[in-house]
Design goal:
By secondary structure, this protein is an alpha/beta fold. The chain folds into two domains: about 150 residues, Quinone Oxidoreductase, Chain A, domain 1; about 140 residues, Medium-chain alcohol dehydrogenases, catalytic domain (Quinone Oxidoreductase, Chain A, domain 1, Alpha-Beta Complex). The protein is built from ten helices and 15 strands. Strands 3, 4, 5, 6, 7, 14 and 15 form a seven-stranded mixed sheet that branches. A six-stranded parallel sheet has the order 10-9-8-11-12-13, sandwiched between helices. Strands 1-2 form a two-stranded antiparallel ribbon. β9, α5 and β10 form a beta-alpha-beta unit. α3 packs across α4. The longest helix has 14 residues. The radius of gyration is 20 Å and the shape is globular.
């Protein structure tokens, strides 16, 4: 089978398209014919050498959609449409940047849908991340006010849509005034321009602070986000769009306001049930949940897709279709 292998960190040109043996699924695993996969920042970090736990060479790719070829344990039937994600995909073992992948059955989700592969390929990791951030990381409740910091990112836009379905009031941010209308059309109740010092703006309109903050920029804005929240509220760090893994200095007694809770979300497939994932996919199919997609690339164009990530040209979830 054809697969894109990363042998050493580097630019998009570091990927090597080569022929390798098709994996043989062991009991408890499912062999999937990959039809499409979304691109994720974690794969980008691995490519540039910022994932020290990933041993190279490796076929990257932490998610995919496709059809079941074989499940030795009988967990799924041949030909079943499925999504697969996390569980070590593309990190501990070869992932979805290939024509076939073998994945633990616990990380494979059967799906009943007529969505085309390019649309379906944008959903698994996106839906899991948004669902986990809202319900595991933030513990949201209807009628609360949620601030999404990094609102124009693909995760930010998807969480906005999911949060509105869940009955939340949403404030979303952008660094560009040109994207204000995009966020309003996506359903944001308020849009705020983020200049890295957001707390004063939020407190001006919400003196007591907001209920929840989804922090997608990361450590570069985290301390400021903590100042946006009311006592008893929660800040959940899910993303690192700012590119910094660590805080230069952190004094918890000074930096975490009294009563404010700081959490993170980097969970996996176990944080969303098969029923929940199917429910969200069906909502997308009915037009009740909007996931903003970016460019769609062919399998041979994978390095070009990573170049688009380098240049921040996605403007939505990017998908590679395997033909």
């Amino acid at each position: 089978m054809r697969a894109w292998i990363l042998r050493q960190p580097g630019g998009p040109e570091a990927f090597e398209l080569t022929d390798i043996p098709r994996p043989e699924p062991q009991p408890g695993h499912v062999l999937i014919e990959v039809r499409a996969f979304g691109l994720n920042r974690s794969e980008w970090f691995t490519r540039i050498g910022e994932s020290p736990t990933v041993r190279l060479p490796r076929v990257l790719g932490i998610e995919c959609v496709g059809t079941v070829v074989r499940a030795p344990g009988g967990e799924l039937e041949e030909g079943q449409h499925v999504a697969a994600m996390m569980g070590g995909m593309g990190r501990e073992f070869d992932g979805s940047y290939a024509e076939y992948t073998s994945v633990p059955a616990s990380n494979v989700f059967p799906l009943d849908t007529e969505l085309p592969w390019d649309v379906l390929g944008s959903l698994p990791e996106m839906l899991q991340t948004c669902h986990g951030s809202l319900h595991t990381g933030l513990g949201v409740q209807p009628n609360e006010t949620l601030l999404i910091r990094g609102g124009t990112s693909s995760v930010g836009l998807a969480t906005l849509s999911m949060a509105k379905v869940a009955g939340l009031r949403v404030i979303s941010t952008s660094r560009s005034e040109a994207k204000i209308e995009l966020l309003r059309k996506a359903g944001a109740d308020e849009v705020v321009i983020d200049d890295d010092e957001l707390a004063a703006k939020i407190r001006n309109d919400h003196p007591e602070g907001v209920d929840r903050v989804l922090e997608l920029i990361g450590t570069t804005t985290l301390l400021d986000s903590l100042k946006c929240v009311r006592p008893g509220g929660v800040v959940c760090m899910t993303g690192i769009l700012g590119g910094e893994w660590e805080l230069g200095s952190f004094r918890p007694m000074e930096d975490i306001p009294t009563g404010v809770r700081l959490t993170s979300y980097s969970g996996g497939a176990s944080d969303i049930s098969r029923e929940d994932l199917q429910h969200y996919v069906s909502m997308v199919e009915r037009g009740e949940l909007t996931i903003r997609t970016g460019p769609v690339w062919s399998f041979d164009q994978l390095p070009l897709a990573h170049q688009a990530m380098d240049e921040n040209r996605a403007n939505g979830k990017m998908v590679v279709v395997v033909e």
